[in-house]
Design brief:
The chain is an all-alpha fold and about 325 residues long. It is about 75% helix and about 0% strand. It is built from 15 helices and two strands. The chain has a two-stranded antiparallel sheet. Strand 1 (about 85-90) and strand 2 (about 90) form a beta hairpin. The radius of gyration is 20 Å and the shape is globular. The two termini are about 25 Å apart. The model has no long low-confidence stretch (mean pLDDT about 95). The structure holds 3-methylbut-3-enyl trihydrogen diphosphate (2 copies) and magnesium ion (3 copies). One 3-methylbut-3-enyl trihydrogen diphosphate binds next to helix 9.
Length: about 325
């Protein structure tokens, strides 16, 4: 078993050879910019780790791992346009640093670069990886559309919320795990179980992203805290608060979520208070723990060494305590 730093370093070296600036610079510079801002590199690490844990040289999984990270970065550029976000990884978002068209096209190019990386595999693996990639990428788009649709809908259910985050975020973590298993040529059962681990971890991950968007530390979070409230995102926090509040608080929250104040400071503060008062913030943390637990229970079924099981469990537990 290799250390996580080792996976990250190998990925970085591989990435440096793939993502370069060439003409036309206005297409490639934003790509280099967003990937150079780094981030946690969660998805590629999951791919490399899974491949490694099934006793295959993890370097064979580098093209698939990088494909997922490039796809993720593509989705972030376009997501920031859709969410009108000014900040990403502590720096200006691509469409703020350049402009809207630059964000659209460099995002498109990143997506193609991601697909190209699967050409590094022989036909059978290429087929399996590319198929999984395409179906996952389409689900991410569907999840993103639901997310935007929900901004202006007033009857979103918690069930619908969970489906939305499963699609926009969790399936990519599932696919990241499964791709590691595909490269390692495991059994079908192993592939299914690794996918399920990643999918459940991904649900916990998005619940926590939503929590941190509200209650994270603005100095270290790297994104604009309160952004989801400003955009009227129907998060678990919002939906649970509606469910648990008295009539008057429910009315106040609904009112706040139909307003677009020029200075949103007060709106953000008021909404956060309601999320705390209702107990929704607490319940959200419980749900994060719950889905992390579901993921951890799947580890038992994986055909990997006891030592690697412990590493995987400590990895998901650490993720639950993240602040960025
Ligand atoms: C942000 O993903 C978008 C979500 C799906 C929540 P990450 O939190 O993994 O972003 P980086 O790559 O670490 O910046
Ligand atoms: C993002 O969800 C999901 C995808 C990028 C597909 P968010 O909109 O919550 O992600 P952040 O918070 O901007 O990173
Ligand atoms: Mg966003
Ligand atoms: Mg979004
Ligand atoms: Mg978010």
């Amino acid at each position: 078993m290799e250390g996580i730093e080792n996976y990250a370093e190998s990925l970085q070296n591989y990435l440096n050879g793939v993502v370069t600036i060439k003409e036309p610079k206005k297409l490639y510079e934003p790509i280099k910019y967003i990937v150079s801002l780094g981030g946690k590199r969660l998805r590629p690490i999951l791919t490399l780790m899974t491949c490694d844990f099934f006793d295959k040289d993890f370097k064979e999984a580098l093209p698939a791992a990088l494909a997922l990270e490039l796809f993720h970065n593509f989705s972030l550029i376009h997501d920031d346009i859709m969410d009108e976000a000014p900040l990403r990884r502590g720096k200006k978002t691509v469409h703020h640093k350049w402009d809207l068209n630059t964000g659209i096209l460099s995002g498109d190019a990143l997506l193609i670069l991601a697909y190209q990386l699967f050409e590094n595999y022989e036909p059978q693996k290429f087929n399996e990886l590319a198929k999984l990639f395409s179906s996952t990428a389409l689900q991410v788009c569907e999840g993103q559309q639901y997310d935007v649709d929900f901004e202006t809908r007033n009857n979103v259910t918690i069930l619908e919320y969970f489906k939305m985050i499963e699609y926009k975020t969790a399936v990519l973590l599932g696919a990241a795990m499964k791709m590691g298993a595909i490269v390692a040529e495991t059994s079908e059962v192993c592939k299914i179980n690794t996918y399920e681990f990643g999918r459940n971890l991904g649900i916990a991950f998005q619940l926590q992203d939503d929590y941190l968007d509200c209650f994270g530390n603005p100095d270290t979070f790297g994104k604009k805290v309160g952004g989801d409230i400003i955009a009227n995102k129907k998060t678990f926090l919002y939906l649970k608060t509606l469910e648990k509040s008295n009539e008057s608080d429910t009315e106040i929250l609904k009112q706040l979520f139909s307003s677009f104040p020029k200075d949103p400071t007060k709106k953000v503060e008021q909404v956060k208070k309601l999320y705390l008062k209702s107990g929704a913030a607490k319940e959200s943390l419980q749900e994060i723990e719950n889905y992390t637990q579901i993921a951890n229970n799947i580890i038992k079924k994986l055909d990997i060494s006891g030592k690697n099981k412990a590493v995987l469990k400590s990895f998901s537990d650490q993720l639950m305590n993240r602040k960025v």
